[in-house]
UniProtKB/TrEMBL annotation, chain A:
<keyword id="KW-0274">FAD</keyword>
<feature type="domain" description="Acyl-CoA dehydrogenase/oxidase N-terminal">
    <location>
        <begin position="8"/>
        <end position="85"/>
    </location>
</feature>
<keyword id="KW-0285">Flavoprotein</keyword>
<keyword id="KW-0560">Oxidoreductase</keyword>
<dbReference type="InterPro" id="IPR036250">
    <property type="entry name" value="AcylCo_DH-like_C"/>
</dbReference>
<dbReference type="InterPro" id="IPR009100">
    <property type="entry name" value="AcylCoA_DH/oxidase_NM_dom_sf"/>
</dbReference>
<dbReference type="InterPro" id="IPR009075">
    <property type="entry name" value="AcylCo_DH/oxidase_C"/>
</dbReference>
<dbReference type="Pfam" id="PF02771">
    <property type="entry name" value="Acyl-CoA_dh_N"/>
</dbReference>
<dbReference type="Pfam" id="PF00441">
    <property type="entry name" value="Acyl-CoA_dh_1"/>
</dbReference>
TrEMBL record, chain B:
<dbReference type="Pfam" id="PF02771">
    <property type="entry name" value="Acyl-CoA_dh_N"/>
</dbReference>
<feature type="domain" description="Acyl-CoA oxidase/dehydrogenase middle">
    <location>
        <begin position="124"/>
        <end position="218"/>
    </location>
</feature>
<dbReference type="GO" id="GO:0050660">
    <property type="term" value="F:flavin adenine dinucleotide binding"/>
</dbReference>
<keyword id="KW-0560">Oxidoreductase</keyword>
<keyword id="KW-0285">Flavoprotein</keyword>
<dbReference type="InterPro" id="IPR052161">
    <property type="entry name" value="Mycobact_Acyl-CoA_DH"/>
</dbReference>
<feature type="domain" description="Acyl-CoA dehydrogenase/oxidase N-terminal">
    <location>
        <begin position="6"/>
        <end position="120"/>
    </location>
</feature>
<dbReference type="InterPro" id="IPR013786">
    <property type="entry name" value="AcylCoA_DH/ox_N"/>
</dbReference>
<dbReference type="GO" id="GO:0016627">
    <property type="term" value="F:oxidoreductase activity, acting on the CH-CH group of donors"/>
</dbReference>
Length: 311, 379
């Protein structure tokens, strides 16, 4: 048992961190939310080049084989930088499609709807899939864009389309969708905490940085605790891939990110409540990810199903 | 990165499981916090020790199995899954023993550890004083030099297990006028039945004498019972506190077993919708705590010290433990009020968690200042 990322995994994280850190993602996100995808497409290409979309794809399809730990680590970074686009959905589609090469290379983006009324970013996706109990369908078009609480997430209904396969690998696709959403939420929470810590060190009231006040410290300490206990669930789920672990990771990561968002908003005060402040890009995503790919209620029900010593 | 265990680790786990199946009492022992229960738990420690299961991770010469940290974690999972009794010797095993391994002499280890392992000598802690709680360094109990040792005088309080324990360990002020309050403290072990010691049991919320006040009047302690250098007790004790807050005080196995018991209770009560989320969160929290501990153990095995991040752990488990037991009592309906159930016993025990071993307010200060880098301020 060695439950820590190894040297190569840490190097992979650092390289993604460096790449995304120099990408000015707030500008990319703001463009994306206005339907301007040029910068987002360029960044997408670099993410593909880093190998992210090949982490759930077999080598014969240009992928790196199924590497769920690397996938989870990558999605934490994507969340940390609030990268926009159908990231989770493209990974999910890469598992569902027999021919995922164009997704791996970054030439194509994909979106997937499952159960719910919307697919994410169908207006920009090249491949639109509807996963249903009857099989996997490819949709020729999409409905009008409906705004999400996270302006960078563009919601559309999908038109019915042709049946690709009646028996797609739904279980694995949903597991990875849930895992990557959990990891992304964890990353969102980590940045919300970082930005808020920076803010409360700088912001002075009553002659002292507000971060020296215990009421402020303790809220941030609680956010730190929630995030640090969600992190091992995300990595553990990546190792075991069991439904209970996936659901536990999704619940804990989304709860932690959302609680951190509430704290971040409160401790930033009024400036945090504005769309102009970059914090908003993460605040709203923390809310949106909670209900994406498994609501807290659905996930808790999965954790409770089954019995005996599960862990 | 992996969560797999070696053949040796799995073998030890299987061996522990088989032993526990054959030995764990069918009926729960009486409460650890009563005289009768204390004696029963002491006898259980002797039974464990006879087959080297009381301190698996200690070296064999002191009664252990020389087991690794991973072995210990797996043993604990089995121990709690088997519903085995609470551990009466945990103050000594979790707090004093690690200090002796780091700072004690070979003579002290040989003399103190084997009877600790067998439950023959049960240890109480003597940290807090009436005027020194969270601000422990302000403590005033004195150790005064005398021929061949020290004389202890003063008052200690909230001394867990002291009502029935044999010996105690704690910090005393050996320099009455130090430059800083953390200096001039000495770490000593003493006999609770020595002349000059008065033990006055304190009844906790449910009336059981779970802790005690200690009045010390020129209690003689020989030099051989000083741990480390006189005057350096703070640093030594903080290493103990680090252990206490860190990996050893609450093993993940305990909460995995409690969460599973809660899930069974919930199912027995017809899986009520109203408590569903709280029961799920208990399962999720136990898994999170287990994996968090595996990660910490992995870092420890890489040679890293467990530092201020142990404060994350302490706040998490202490609040988790209360929430889990609140849910259980709510599920019991009107029976939730009964004080004689195992759930009630555990609930009352859990209520103390956020207070001892460094209050959760102190822990949150440590997290904010030392992990997040926020500026120090007035408490």
């Amino acid at each position: 048992m060695r439950f820590l990322p190894d040297v190569e995994q840490r190097a992979f994280v650092s390289s993604l961190d460096a790449m995304l850190g120099s990408a000015d993602t707030p500008t990319v996100v703001r463009d994306w939310s206005r339907g301007r995808h040029t910068r987002g497409r360029a960044l997408w290409g670099r993410i593909a080049e880093a190998g992210v979309f090949g982490l759930a794809v077999p080598e014969e399809c240009d992928g790196l084989g199924l590497r769920p730990v690397e996938l989870a680590l990558a999605f934490v970074e994507l969340g940390r930088y609030a990268v926009p686009g159908p990231l989770v959905e493209t990974v999910t589609a890469a598992v569902l499609l027999a021919e995922p090469k164009r997704l791996v290379s970054g030439e194509a983006m994909a979106t997937v709807s499952y159960g719910g009324p919307y697919a994410l970013d169908a207006d920009v996706a090249d491949i639109r899939l509807a996963l249903t109990p009857d099989g996997l369908f490819r949709s020729p078009g999409h409905g009008p864009v409906r705004p999400s609480i996270d302006p960078a997430r563009r919601l559309t209904a999908l038109e019915a389309g042709e049946l690709l396969t009646p028996a797609p690998p739904t279980g694995q696709a949903l597991a990875l969708a849930r895992l990557t959403t959990a990891a992304q939420a964890l990353g969102v929470g980590l940045t919300l905490l970082d930005k808020t810590v920076t803010h409360v060190k700088r912001r002075t009231q009553f002659g002292a940085p507000i971060g020296s006040f215990q009421a402020v410290k303790h809220r941030l300490a609680d956010a730190k605790i929630a995030l640090e206990f969600a992190r091992p669930l995300v990595l553990g789920a990546a190792l075991t891939l069991t439904p209970a672990d996936m659901a536990a990771a999704k619940t804990a990561a989304c709860e932690a990110a959302y609680a951190t968002a509430r704290t971040a908003l409160q401790l930033h005060g009024a400036i945090g409540y504005t769309a102009e402040c970059d914090l908003s890009l993460w605040l709203t995503k923390a809310r949106a990810l909670r209900t994406a790919w498994g609501s807290p209620e659905e996930c808790r029900a999965v954790v409770l199903s089954g019995g005996g010593r599960r862990w | 990165m992996d969560l797999t265990f070696t053949a040796e680790e799995t073998a030890l786990r299987d061996q522990a499981r088989a032993w526990l199946r054959a030995h764990v009492p069918a009926e729960p022992l009486p409460s650890l916090e009563t005289e009768e229960g204390f004696a029963a738990h002491r006898a259980w420690e002797a039974e464990l020790a006879a087959d080297r299961w009381s301190v698996v991770n200690w070296p064999t010469e002191y009664g252990g199995r020389g087991a690794s940290l991973v072995d210990w974690l797996l043993f604990e999972e089995e121990y709690h899954a088997a519903g085995a009794p609470g551990r009466v010797g945990q103050n000594g095993v979790n707090l004093l023993a690690p200090t002796l391994f780091d700072f004690g002499t070979a003579e002290q280890r040989a003399r103190v550890l084997p009877p600790m392992a067998s439950g023959e000598v049960v240890w109480a802690q003597a940290w807090s004083e009436p005027e020194a709680g969270s601000d422990l360094a302000s403590l005033r109990s004195r150790a005064t030099r005398t021929d061949g040792g020290w004389l202890l005088s003063g008052q200690k309080t909230w001394s867990s297990r002291a009502a029935f324990a044999d010996r105690a360990f704690g910090l005393f002020r050996s320099d009455p006028d130090p430059a800083k309050p953390h200096q001039g403290l000495t770490y000593l072990m003493f006999d609770l039945r020595a002349p000059g010691v008065t033990v006055r049991p304190i009844r906790r919320l449910d009336g059981k004498p779970a802790f005690a006040e200690l009045f010390l009047d020129e209690v003689f302690v020989p030099d051989e019972d000083v741990i480390g250098e006189p005057g350096h007790g703070w640093r030594i004790a903080m290493s103990t506190a680090g252990n206490e807050r860190g990996l050893m005080l609450r093993s993940p196995g305990r909460f995995l077993a409690s969460a599973e018991r809660l899930r069974r209770l919930w199912a027995e009560k017809g899986s009520p919708e109203g408590t569903k989320a709280r029961v799920a969160d208990a399962l999720i929290g136990a898994r999170a705590y287990q994996l968090f501990t595996y990660a910490a153990a992995s870092r420890f095995l890489d040679g890293e010290r467990i530092g201020p991040e142990s404060s994350l752990n302490k706040v998490f488990w202490s609040e988790y433990d209360i929430a889990l037991h609140e849910t259980a009592l709510d599920l019991l309906g009107e029976d939730g009020e009964s004080a004689d159930t195992d759930w009630a016993e555990r609930y009352v025990f859990a209520l103390a968690g956020p207070i001892y071993a460094g209050t959760n307010e102190i822990q949150r200060d440590i997290i904010a200042e030392r992990l997040l880098g926020l500026p120090k301020g007035r408490r």
